[in-house]
Amino acid sequence: MNNKKRIVIIGATSAIAEHCARLWLEKQPADLTLVGRDTQRIERVAADLKVRSPQSEIRVVQAEFLNPQAINATVGDIVKSGRVDIVLIAHGSLPEQAECQSGLESCRDALEINGVSPVLYAEAFAKEMEKANHGTIALIGSVAGDRGRKSNYVYGAAKGLVTRYAQGLQHRFAGSGVTVVLIKPGPTDTPMTAHLKGKGAKLAPVADVAKQIVEGVESGKPAIYAPGKWWLIMMVIRHLPSIIFNNACCTPSPDTSRVIDGFSDLRVILSISSI
Questions:
Q1: Domain of 185, in residue numbers
Q2: How would you class 135 by CB atoms within 10 Å of its CB: exposed for 0-12, middle for 13-18, buried for 19 or more?
Q3: SS3 helix, strand, coil % of the chain, rounded to 5?
């Protein structure tokens, strides 16, 4: 009988997901299923993890990320092998806001891959975990979903969808054997944010963010800000009056200069909270 913890990672080629997988396997051998679109990239991740944890069982699944029927089929095939203990839904992309504004196709794609797709995968696993009354669904959102900002409001809207969905799912499963964890990373040093690093942005080490995620998922925390300082930063940003928020990143007019005087630190916070 296989007594290993069963973990599924959707979007397993992302840097955060790969580091989370390493940490889980460091703790103990696991039954790990890696799901992604690019078979070669998933195979490379799987090969590295097999070297790190020879006693683990590691499977690779190539899957669609937007087709509802394909998502249902993928999840159905996964649960046929037994109930899932943890599913980490980690896929997404960081679109250019300017491209989303100039092209509706880019806008649609950003909303679908960062918002709709994670929700569809979570809903498919929720149905199966509800039957078993067991499991943890961990969804990677973003601090960008806490309040819309001009630098990334399309991406932020998609992550805001993930936030509201996760909150509703938590309400649905309250008091049951199913746990839902919402993860909100701040700016993190990954290939997806390489262009920001080149502009001098301060990015958290991906290994540190992954460590907080794994610890938070294991403890069943409802929401995880990683690094933890983003809980305070985003609490401030969420509660700012619009007259302050909307002018904090702009050149103040004579009518608003007195209101936002002294908020230079806020401008810095808003400029770095763009992911």
A1: 5-237
A2: buried
A3: 55, 15, 30
pLDDT in tens, 178-234: 999 999 998 887 766 666 666 666 788 899 999 999 999 999 999 999 999 999 999
Q: Which two tokens stand for residue 258?
A: 């007195």
Structural domains in the chain (count): 2
Instruction: Dig out the tokens for 204 from the structure.
Output: 């958290």
Residues 271 and 220 in one domain: no
Rounded Cα distance between 212 and 224, Å, is 8
Q: Is the same domain home to 168 and 200?
A: yes
The proportion of the chain whose per-residue pLDDT surpasses 90, expressed as a percent, equals 76
- Counts for the chain of helices (H) and strands (E), in that order: 13, 9
Residues 157, 104, single domain; the answer is yes
pLDDT of residue 202: 76
29 shares a domain with 158: yes
Structure confidence by residue, pLDDT tens digits, 49-73: 999 999 999 999 999 999 999 999 9
Answer yes or no: do 180 and 223 share one domain: yes
Q: For 10-29, what is the mean pLDDT?
A: 96
Distance between CA atoms of 20 and 36, rounded to whole angstroms?
15
Q: Which CATH number fits the domain that encloses residue 95?
A: 3.40.50.720
- Same domain for 220 and 268, yes or no, is no
DSSP helix/strand/coil, 35: strand
What is the pTM (predicted TM-score) of this model?
A: 0.87
